[in-house]
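lol forgot to send this yesterday, sorry. struct tokens for the thing we talked abt
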């Protein structure tokens, strides 16, 4: 095969070392030189100096966990091209598994132009991605703490969650603080309810008659302190995200016009896909059907793994829009859920939201609602024939007449 890059390098990046193989063509002969470096910053700087001394123009490395990031930070911008490669795309021949063999294999593939680099967003987008992903972790921690609090309340015979929709809302927290302070009178605790929850005071009096001990009070106090601490961290984090996205408020507002997409979901979409993505966005995200065909038969349509963080955002938005009654996406969900189930329908709606987001960001337009009756109007004649056949199968004689306009 034709050699596209006369002097290039393949890197195998484990945790504690980096194995480099420089492959260079000189006077029709191929020369390969291998070296191993540490992963400390001074070792990576020596690696960069050695590659430059060898005349390397292109570098490729595997995306091994997070261990590629220190190497990328040092090498990015010092060569014509630095590629981050999906490990599944460069599996070597069986029996060639070794660090030196891996680096040599990567160098050979790179030299003949057989590698395609993965998407690595700019530094600002990577930092925003870290913030939004950390916020997801904090949200999950809040849920875990809330579940622990609920277990303690059940152990103390307090059935607050059976009456209140949100046991940790303003009313619930006021009651829990009073319980921690030693209040045991169910009537006084029930009177602390606020808003619509006051309509359930008789049920609250029954639910708050428990057997709370000092052990329960101690656990509730510690868990509520943990919950407030995590929520304060989340508030601080959201302020930082808003500060980072201040130049892109138009994009955030534009994404929020999509049904099911709120401010937090828009943050996640922008941080995961960036502002400049190509037309293969749905495939990269793993939100479109797979393509596995042999001998003219479609064997599987299983979706690829893709970006788990982006998929979580889109599925949450898809499930949120399923409860709406006046949008195209909700009609799409019900149309698919009836035949394929809720999970597949959620994934399909998430895919549609991703396509809308791509188009809105690319064209700088707001979302245009197609309407709940879009599928009915799309092929009205076929729908009319189908409904008539169903009525006739039930033993009815159907005669259709056009409605009089203005009647």
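and heres what i got for the seq, position by position
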């Amino acid at each position: 095969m034709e050699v596209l890059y006369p002097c290039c390098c393949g890197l195998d990046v484990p945790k504690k070392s980096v194995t480099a193989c420089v492959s260079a063509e000189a006077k029709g002969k191929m020369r390969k030189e291998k070296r191993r470096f540490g992963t400390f910053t001074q070792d990576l700087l020596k690696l960069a100096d050695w590659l430059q001394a060898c005349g390397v123009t292109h570098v490729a490395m595997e995306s091994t966990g997070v261990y590629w990031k220190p190497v990328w930070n040092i090498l990015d911008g010092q060569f014509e091209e630095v590629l981050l490669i999906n490990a599944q795309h460069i599996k070597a021949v069986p029996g060639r598994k070794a660090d030196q063999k891996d680096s040599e294999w990567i160098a050979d593939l790179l030299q003949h132009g057989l590698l395609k680099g993965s998407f690595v967003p700019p530094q600002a987008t990577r930092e925003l991605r870290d913030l939004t992903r950390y916020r997801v972790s904090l949200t999950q921690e809040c849920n875990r703490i809330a579940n622990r609090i609920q277990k303690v309340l059940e152990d103390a015979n307090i059935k607050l969650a059976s009456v209140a929709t949100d046991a940790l809302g303003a009313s619930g927290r006021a009651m829990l603080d009073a319980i921690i302070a030693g209040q045991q009178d169910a009537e006084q605790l029930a009177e602390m309810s606020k808003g619509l929850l006051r309509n359930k005071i008789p049920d609250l009096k029954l639910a708050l008659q428990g057997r709370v001990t000092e052990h329960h009070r101690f656990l509730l106090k510690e868990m509520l302190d943990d919950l407030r601490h995590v929520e304060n961290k989340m508030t601080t984090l959201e302020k930082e995200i808003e500060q980072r996205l201040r130049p892109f408020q138009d994009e955030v507002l534009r994404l929020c016009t999509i049904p099911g997409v709120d401010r937090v979901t828009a943050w996640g979409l922008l941080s995961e896909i960036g502002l400049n993505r190509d037309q293969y966005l749905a495939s990269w995200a793993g939100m479109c059907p797979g393509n596995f065909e042999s001998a003219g038969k479609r064997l599987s349509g299983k979706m690829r793994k893709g970006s788990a963080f982006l998929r979580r955002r889109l599925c949450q938005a898809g499930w949120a829009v399923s409860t709406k009654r006046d949008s195209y996406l909700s009609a799409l969900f019900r149309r698919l859920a009836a035949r394929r189930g809720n999970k597949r329908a959620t994934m399909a709606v998430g895919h549609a939201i991703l396509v809308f987001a791509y188009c809105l960001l690319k064209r700088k337009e707001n979302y245009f609602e197609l309407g709940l009756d879009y599928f009915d109007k799309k092929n009205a004649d076929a729908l009319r024939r189908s409904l008539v056949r169903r009525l006739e199968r039930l033993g009815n004689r159907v005669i259709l007449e056009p409605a009089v306009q203005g009647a």
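The longest strand covers residues 17-26. anyway ping me if u want another try
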